[in-house]
Amino acid sequence: MFGKTTSVASESEYTTEELAQRGLDRARLPKHVAIIMDGNGRWARSRHLPRIEGHRRGVKSVRVIVEECSRIGIEQLTLYCFSSENWKRPRAEQTLLMKLLEQYVIEERSEIMRQGLRFATIGRVDRLGDRVLKEIGKTVACSRENDGMRLCLALDYGSRDEIVHAVRNISAQVAAGDLNADDITDEVVSQHLFTAGMPDPDLVIRTAGEMRVSNFLLWQISYSELWVTEKYWPEFREPDLIDALQEFATRHRRFGGLDQ
Ligand code: IPE
Ligand code: IPE
Ligand code: MG
């Protein structure tokens, strides 16, 4: 049923003029934006609400920001939803987060198709429940042929875990004689990460003020621009995203070289 839905991504993208009205220039946009969506718990606490209410409100921000990034013409949006270290949280919070995730993947499927998004995930899959994995699989499959923005959710994701996994796979190839140790390059390592085939993020946004990367895409963000806001994720909206994109446009990326 979803396979028949036509993609409308290009129709709903902002024109150059509409981008200019928002103070954005297409030529200076990041291709890949990655977001550490932090502060759901603090948002809830500041309103005397249970933490889970913060996570629920965070889903609303996800919806708004996914659609806005897609309309702006971002090629990939990666959202850090659950880290491999988040299993340290109380069981009740883990369960509720997994339920919210499953609900999101089901409810958002038609919206993902309407916006013509390509859905993907990165992270371990062996610790996520079968039900959530099944729903993820369905959304990945039905959105495969879309040509809009890639929406990538980092689930049970930890960068060190990912690197260990890559090192093991590469070592096994060397041990089997299929790969020469001298032929291990940057590219080979990248190809063994969960993000194989994806561009590195150009811009990393973190909400809720913490100045750290919390085990997120350590290899891939080597030369990403970082932008941190004090705002909690549940209150992050389009104007905040625009602020980040405008600031990104002013950054001089040298990649170790000199300004042109
Ligand atoms: C981010 O919000 C969502 C997840 C990590 C799942 P937090 O739950 O970390 O919120 P704070 O940092 O405690 O405020
Ligand atoms: C980072 O937030 C992980 C996600 C947003 C999913 P955390 O709340 O887990 O990070 P720390 O504990 O503040 O570093
Ligand atoms: Mg946090």
Structural notes for this entry:
With 260 residues, the chain is α/β, with parallel strands linked by helices. The protein has a domain at 28-159 and 200-248: 3-Layer(aba) Sandwich (Undecaprenyl pyrophosphate synthetase). It has helices at 9-12, 16-21, 40-46, 51-72, 91-107, 109-114, 130-142, 159-175, 186-191, 238-250, and strands spanning 32-36, 76-83, 118-122, 150-157, 203-206, 225-228. Strands 3-4-2-1-5-6 form a six-stranded parallel beta sheet, with helices on both faces. One 3-methylbut-3-enyl trihydrogen diphosphate binds next to helix 3. One 3-methylbut-3-enyl trihydrogen diphosphate (IPE) binds next to helix 3.
Topology:
Layout (H helix, E strand, L loop, with lengths): L8 H4 L3 H6 L10 E5 L3 H7 L4 H22 L3 E8 L7 H17 L1 H6 L3 E5 L7 H13 L7 E8 L1 H17 L10 H6 L11 E4 L18 E4 L9 H13 L10
The chain binds 3-methylbut-3-enyl trihydrogen diphosphate (2 copies) and magnesium ion.
The site of one 3-methylbut-3-enyl trihydrogen diphosphate has 10 residues, from α3.
